[in-house]
Amino acid sequence: MDAFKGRSQTTKGIWMAKCAGMEPCTLVMDLEGTDGRERGEDDTAFEKQSSLFALAVSDIVLINMWCHDIGREQAANKPLLKTVFQVMMRLFSPRKTTLMFVIRDKTRVEPVLREDIQKIWDSVPKPEAHRETPLSEFFNVEVVALSSFEEKEDQFREQVANLRQRFHHSIAPGGLAGDRRGVVPASGFSFSAQQIWKVIKENKDLDLPAHKVMVATVRCEEIANEKYAAFTKNEDWCQLEETVKSEPVAGFGKKLSSILNTTLSEYDVEATYFDEGVRSSKRKQLEEKLLQLVQLAYQSMVGHIRSGTFDKFKEAFDKALNGGEAFSVAACSCTENHMALFDEKSADAIVELANWDSSKARDKLRRDIDAHVASVRAAKLLELTSSYEAKLNDALSAPVEAILDEANKETWPAIRKLLLRETESAVSGLSSALSGFNLDEQTKDKMLTSLKDHARGVVEGKAKEEAGRVLIRMKDRFSMLFSHDSDSMPRVWTGKEDIRAITKTARSASLKLLSVMAVIRLDDAGDNIENILSLALVDTKNNAADKSITTTDPLAASTWEQVPPSKTLITPFQCKSLWRQFKAETEYSVTQAISAQEANRRNNNWLPPPWAILALIVLGFNEFMTLLRNPLYLLLIFIGYLLVKALWVQLDISGEFQNGALPGLISLSTKFLPTIMNLLKKLAEEGANPATNAPQRNPATKSSKHGSRSDLSSIASSTVNSSENDTGYSSLSKDD
């Protein structure tokens, strides 16, 4: 035997052998088990015959029992003992035999076992001669209990050895062999056993089941097998089975029930004359086999119904949502309608003979519907929240960037006002949209809070982004204020502007921008960052006085006072570093402005110093009086002035000397002679014009001379104006 392969028959029939090492000589018979599956439940005649044979020829009969079978009907062999006791009293004379019940996995059940045996003996119909005969006249009942072999192997082996010891000298007085009445000599044992077996075999009370039952069993089973085979080849069934594999079949339950009823009716007609019990039993077996065969088709049909209903639900649900119906209303109505549709179609697929239900498929359909609703809800909610988040991005990003670009004391209040307005608008819209989803308050509040956090995150993200470009913004603001006047016109450095004041104003505005961008102020919490930066970076005189008192640098820290690190965009130390870099990069513009102003002053200031003018007046008084006495000198000086002015304009002497004295002289030397020749040529052309009237010769000549002077003056003045305009534009382009 191999316990891991399961239980099986180890003894077939009756085996006999001499017991080794046993005194006196003892024969042992091993009988086939009384409850073996190999013979089946209907072949019990041999079990009864062999049991009766053992009781008739043996002095001691050992009956193996599991302790848990005591008190049961079939497992304890009660029907078998009852039949054997009854036949034994009728066939054989009283002979006391020892019945030793060996109980495996012992428990305290000996009284129960003895009580059961006594009840069996009392219930057995007895012949008149033995009606009052007690059990002890026929049997000596012994009960031996053994421990579990698996749990207590050593104890089990010890108890078996003790039991074997009891069989030594079993025929001695007081031994296990009983009274040994009717003992047969060893030489006649074989013949006696043959006669006893013959009597037992001829007894019809042990020949069960009856003949008609056996015939009915065989024939009904044959009919059932024939009908089962015919059903498997039935065209309607084959077509129905093939179709239901790929698609649902309308009226599936009625069609299949009709085919099954037809098959069972044919069985009933052919088996109607056989034993009713056998006929009914075999019919039930046929019905179970047929239902087992068609169950797969039924499951396929229910699966088609479930999948088809689920597809229709998804289509109807999407249509309802696209039609503008509220989500929770659409989900509830579509779920109820399609669950009812599933129940209706499942009822059409029910097979009358089977006690099947579609509860598992229904539960799976409900789970699928709930999962689909949950997934669509999640997708819709995600789409909804994403839409409002995108609206917040559009409503906040550009305005916040524009507000931060202005950077004044109203920057963060304006941002807070904008954030509050847009957040309330988005939260109100989302709250209204969520009302159709039938969400619990906790989930709804969580989503609204998440939207508020997103809006705040957009502002903070944009602030961080702008803080990363703060140096560029500072330089742009400085350049705008420094290079443009109050009317936003490009500034021309004429020498009258206060560059120091303008520089201080531009730098203060840039510092204001830096203080605004230093931290996030969405909670309306006050701080003195602007004052700290102003004192540390701009007010150098006060700062120097403060340093003489204390050596602590307010910007030598990584955090601002009363500002959490999470709200800090630019640390104090970073502000100091940025300001240093800002001043270094804007210093060039200030230097250029100062240089342009100085150059403009030099270009526009051609008068000698006052002392030189006074010296000219005192020392040149006599010459001045001489000019007054002789006006011809004045005329010559005026003509000389016009010529010099014309040369000055034509040669652009001021422009040439802006590049330096030596380059200016070289350039003038190359242009001086061509310019003189050009002026003389123009004068010659003016003087070559002939007079038209002779009497008016002198006046005409005088007029011509006057005209030449006027033309020369006009040429000089136009050239001077042109030069001045060119100089102005040149200065403007340099400032730009």
From TrEMBL:
Annotated Polar residues bias: 690-702, 710-736
Matches recorded under SUPFAM superfamilies: P-loop containing nucleoside triphosphate hydrolases
Record InterPro entries: G_GB1_RHD3_dom, P-loop_NTPase, RHD3/Sey1, Sey1/RHD3-like_3HB
Domain (GB1/RHD3-type G) ranges: 1-180
Membrane-spanning parts: 632-649
Keyword list, A-Z: Coiled coil, Endoplasmic reticulum, GTP-binding, Hydrolase, Membrane, Nucleotide-binding, Transmembrane, Transmembrane helix
This protein's name: GB1/RHD3-type G domain-containing protein
